[in-house]
Design a protein that fits this description.
The structure is a homodimer.
Chain A: H1 6-9, E1 13-17, H2 26-36, E2 42-46, E3 52-53, E4 56-57, E5 71-74, H3 81-91, E6 95-98, H4 108-124, E7 127-129, E8 135-138, E9 143-146, E10 157-161, H5 164-175, E11 181-186, H6 195-203, E12 210-215, H7 221-229, E13 234-239, H8 253-257, H9 260-271, E14 274-276, H10 279-291, E15 300-305, H11 308-320, E16 324-325, H12 330-337, E17 350-351, H13 358-369, E18 376-381, H14 389-402, E19 407-412, H15 416-425, E20 431-432, H16 435-445, H17 462-473, H18 481-490, E21 498-501, H19 504-514, E22 518-524, E23 536-540, H20 543-559, E24 566-573, E25 579-588, E26 592-599, H21 604-607, E27 610-614, H22 619-627, H23 646-663, E28 667-675, E29 682-684, E30 687-690
Parallel strand pairs in A: 1-2, 1-5, 5-6, 6-7, 10-11, 10-12, 12-13, 13-14, 15-16, 15-17, 15-18, 18-19, 19-20
Antiparallel strand pairs in A: 3-4, 8-9, 8-11, 21-24, 22-23, 22-24, 25-26, 25-28, 26-27, 28-29, 28-30
Helix pairs in contact in A: 3-4, 6-7, 7-9, 10-16, 11-16, 13-14, 19-20, 22-23
Chain lengths: ~700, ~700
């Protein structure tokens, strides 16, 4: 929703329902903070118990006020909240911040009340944040409207957190960092105003350039994605709960590999959101966006240092992150030799040795800044004697003022006290405690996202309609193998030759038409895992072996007591390959249809080398999905095997995606997807479709 | 060497050669620190330029002193150092600390001088640390003998660092942590006293319980390993230079996969050293060893918290580290429900909600401490209102005093200032800034090492002797394929059937004896990569195909112009398998013979799923090597394939190890090592041995 939230976050008047005189209660602290933070608007304590509260006149009800407050904050027991909102709304109040807890976080009953609040808000065009929050701060108007002691300095970031405690915790941590907040918002259970609504609102704010998110769930993924795609802000997100296994039943292969978190990862990538794994990482990346306007795509990095050890560790980190150490030409080295001390090393890292002077730093920095082939500079100083880190910090800072578009990060290995002093005074350069932190933040801040989401192409096919119709008439949801293969055939996907037979004679006819060796497998309405009941025979070389195989399979089915659903036998061209992949579709409870491409064969479980995408996807995203596998090397020319036909592979995956969306299928497994050892062609052999 | 270093590190008198009155020189700062740190021994400035130095009587030469100083520290230009040592030694000085730089770090000439110093030290039974150091501190005798401003509080750790700057940097960081140092030593280029010597010396010190190492190289690996194995101290090591590619020529398969760092990793593991990747990690692990006597093997962890967010992130970290969340029984939950607030969650994490009282923390901690099934407790507090983090810290601390053997780590998410105050006052509990840090440190501190190194079993075999003799007589260092296979046969390893033939008739005889299908491959004194010249034919089904294959191979060799070295053809049983591994031996320039076990086939390069060990190895270590592969799951029963014969695999690897050591071979590749699809038996097919 496109909400107008200016009067909400920049209110001229605030009423606090539940304001209190009792120290160490929520109502006391909330009023105390609003009253004593420098906020210039009107503040109205509301509590029928008092006529005066913390020195202010106290009112029994909002309706008793002479004006309609632009924002009402509510800190009273949960059960009274909805009624209070109704009364205030009748009086004309539009904006509510519910501090009170005791709602959805406690269970179904609380969720129910939240639902009622949300309905009331929609019907009456209200904006309600919460419940279960600690409030918010807005440094733009010097407003501290949270009941904890936290707050932090002004800046270009906004923080939105689903955890109340962490809203406070993160603000405490930011206060000791270079990152300032314009607003810090505890959004709580978000029964009305959503994270997506807030992102949309802040997208329009010019004084905000980054949005920090702490999320434990992503309730409206489509709106969230749209808000992120429409944003020109940098969005940095900690999404916790990585280890929790998802709600997807592991009945399909793809489902078994889809932990919720791998899909969350894919989703945030597709949103163009920088996902970080800890508050510390969030602060480090935010420090870059707090000090720099434009972030270049970083490839070539130079490390400038006065100490070898930390530089070596930085190089280790850069290399592990896939960043490149710029190689100086002989001319460039000669130039640096001309002014640096004789023991200095002019390779990269440039080790100017312990006694490096301010001038050494200045000249070397300027030299690297003016080299367009260098994307980022990590400037390390470790005090031994002589020049202090504070002096170096101020030099680097002033260089950056002169050259604002170069990525320069500074690392100081020193006492907390000096470090803190540096962080509070240096405005133009992000400061880090180690080269590893600097390297990681540079990498994370200059990620390239492929968010070119394509509109779905509708697929309609009357033969497929008929197959699905038959399945539904049988009260099944799983297609037989033959039906699944027929669907793939209708989609004109690269299937091996196959046909359905019911008796030995037609089996022989088909096998001879296809050419031996062939595979025989059952197609059945009742059996989903064919191999488990001895329903597959491979490498059949002639008619005699074929007849024998059919007999054996029948006997196997009889002994497993499952011959009833048998629909016939599929005779199929025999194909094997050294390169087996899998492709699949799952319907995630949260994100809807998602695709998975992965390494197949016996290696699936060992390496879990898979990549998910939330549908729909563009061809570019599919290419990225393919290439993000470690095993994607195998699609190239390896060990005399030819390159895979990548165009055909992308095409196949895109058709499956569009088909899955068009028919809203439940699960789909293509296992295996073979890359032909001689031609590199794609071959599909087996499919399993659930509708 | 077992050095007596008591008078070195606990000297009663120190002479400083190069002491100076010029502020901001090394000689000034060194004397200044020694003089003003509270050290009670005698201090003698030595400098022919002065009669008085910083208020002390200054002497021209050490020989002018009335006593022989127990330690002489040298801070004069490099070129004068050796002569000065000689003169002091003649006077009777035994212990030297060379601060001066300008030696091996600058190149060959400096290395030469270091070598002369080292020889002189050996001949005259001296102890020399350095050159290229910043000095050392010994908090045990209040001695600060380094020329930087750093120092830190007393404690149970010793720091040994190859980087001078980082000796200072790490001490600065430790000062803000809970970790105290007994000694901090900058060892520099270590021309005489080695890291191994120092570890051996500190192994005997009762007041030291942990040794922190910052290393950029490991010069005498055997001595180092022995010193570590003999140690009952905890040894934590940052070994930087992880990304540098090793000196091993990539002529063998195993060599190509052996970056120096993978071997360093294996080596430190086998030493029982805890390898960490950053100074921050080192400090975190050291904080645990600074506050705890005994570290339990950690499996089951409980998280106690008053805020959900940080607990969820902790659970994410624990799960990624493979640690387990303890599951409370219904009875245990009922007990906690009996005193906690109604909104509290009594699962694990135990979320006692924002308003948790001191008493809630106390009771819950005590309850978890007394549960023997819980190995570690992570106790999180985030201040919102009411109880402060400082109060909680002191409660946890006192609980730990009562129950010293339980692993309890505490996490506070707060301002730096309060954090620092907590760290400086809490003595019994390691304090962390995040649950992720706590989890990682717990995991790293309770690692189980398999260091049960076995003595090598000598292998002597006269037939192998003869093969090697022939190779040497030919001036070759690479065995032919046939010779390599013959060696494996002599070692009674599980080889497929094979024989050498020189003509078509004997080829047919052998093939019929082995049974078709067979493989034909050349064995040649000049060709090492058989496939590249068309020297291998697989899947030969009968006599006709065999004759054709021999002809084709000969033609291939002719067209590649390399028929000359041909020794004949190997006819070999045809075997293939879904499970291919590789085993190999390399001779690392630094660590000597190392073995590699890895996943084979076309996946080698994509996954680099390999594990190295430095030889010799015990069977236990070999088992660990096998099981540390991700692909080790494939050795179990997967997809109807039988379990691999692990005993035979270990046996094979052990024989290869002992053979390689006994014959001091240069390189060995067993590629592939097949696991039979039907039996799980081990089969070797090809070998390449370089001597």
């Amino acid at each position: 929703m496109n909400r107008k939230l200016d009067t909400f976050f920049y209110p001229k008047s605030i009423a606090i329902i539940g304001a209190s005189n009792k120290v160490d209660t929520v109502g006391y602290r909330l009023l105390y903070n609003v009253k004593n933070c420098g906020y210039e608007g009107a503040v109205y304590p509301i509590n029928p118990k008092y006529t005066e509260c913390q020195g202010l006149q106290c009112f029994s009800r909002v309706q008793d006020l002479d004006e309609i407050p632009q924002l009402v904050m509510i800190a009273i027991p949960a059960k009274a909240v909805l009624q209070t909102i109704k009364e205030c709304a009748k009086f004309g109040v539009k904006n509510f911040y519910i501090i009170s807890s005791g709602f959805g976080e406690l269970g179904a009953e609380g969720k129910h009340v939240e639902h009622d609040i949300s309905l009331f808000a929609q019907e009456n065009d209200l904006n309600i944040i919460g419940p279960n929050t600690i409030g918010f701060i807005n440094n733009g108007i010097k407003l501290n409207a949270n009941f904890s002691q936290s707050g932090c300095k002004d800046g270009n970031a906004v923080l939105i957190s689903q955890s109340g405690a962490l809203t406070s915790g993160i603000m405490n941590i930011l206060e000791d960092s270079q990152v300032g907040l314009k607003l810090g918002i505890s959004i709580g259970n978000a029964c009305d105003v959503s994270v997506a609504d807030l992102i949309k609102y802040f997208n329009k704010k010019k004084d905000i350039s980054q949005i920090l998110l702490y999320l434990e769930s992503i309730p409206q993924p489509e709106e969230f994605m749209q808000a992120c795609k429409d944003s020109d802000k940098k969005i940095i997100c900690v999404k916790s709960g990585r280890s929790a296994r998802g709600a997807i039943a592991a009945s399909s292969h793809t489902g078994a590999l889809a932990s919720t978190d791998t899909i969350v990862d894919a989703f945030l990538q597709q949103c163009g959101v920088i996902r970080v794994n800890s508050i510390a990482e969030m602060v480090n990346v935010a420090a870059i966006f707090s000090t720099m306007e434009k972030i270049p795509m970083t490839k070539n990095v130079v490390v400038i240092t006065n100490a070898g050890g930390p530089a070596i560790m930085t190089v280790d980190a850069l290399s592990e992150l896939g960043l490149n150490l710029y190689e100086f030409s002989d001319e460039e080295k000669d130039y640096m030799r001309s002014y640096l001390q004789s023991q200095a090393s002019v390779k990269n890292p440039i080790d100017m040795v312990a006694s490096a002077s301010i001038d050494d730093y200045k000249k070397t920095l300027e030299f690297c800044i003016n080299n367009d082939k260098i994307d980022a500079i990590i400037c390390i100083h470790l005090y031994i004697m002589g020049t202090t880190s504070k002096e170096i910090a101020s030099i680097v800072d002033s260089m950056k003022e002169k050259y604002p578009n170069k990525m320069i990060a500074s690392v100081f290995i020193t006492h907390l006290e000096e470090m803190n002093e540096i962080k509070q005074t240096i405005k133009n350069i992000p400061i880090f405690e180690s080269g590893e932190d600097a390297s990681k933040a540079i990498k994370q801040s200059s990620q390239k996202f492929i968010c070119s989401r394509e509109k779905q192409r509708k697929i309609r096919n009357t033969n497929i309609d008929k197959i699905f119709e038959n399945v539904r008439q049988d009260n099944r949801n799983l297609l037989t193998t033959y039906e699944s293969l027929e669907v793939l055939k209708e989609l004109e996907l690269p299937l091996v030759k196959f046909d359905l037979v019911k008796d030995p004679q037609s089996a022989k006819n088909v096998a001879n038409k296809i050419n031996y060796p062939v595979v025989v497998k059952i197609t059945s309405k009742t059996i989903s895992h064919k191999s488990d009941v001895g329903g597959v025979k491979v490498g059949i070389k002639n008619d005699i072996e074929l007849i024998k195989a059919l007999d054996e399979i029948k006997n196997n089915l009889k002994s497993h007591n499952c011959i009833d659903g048998l629909d016939g036998f599929i005779i199929q061209e025999m194909k094997s390959s050294n390169r087996e992949f899998v492709y699949g579709i799952v319907n995630d409870a949260q994100f809807g249809l998602c695709s998975m491409f992965g390494l197949g064969g016996i290696f699936v479980e060992s390496f879990k080398d898979v990549c998910f995408k939330v549908l729909p996807t563009s061809n570019e995203e599919i290419l990225q999905q393919i290439h993000s596998l470690k095993a994607s090397k195998l699609l190239g020319s390896v060990r005399n095997l030819p390159c895979a036909d990548i165009d055909k592979l992308v095409d196949t995956m895109q058709i499956i995606n569009n088909f899955s969306l068009s028919y809203n299928i439940k699960e789909l497994d293509l296992n295996p997807v073979l890359i032909d050892d001689k031609t590199g062609n794609i071959s599909l052999i087996d499919a399993r479709i659930k509708i």
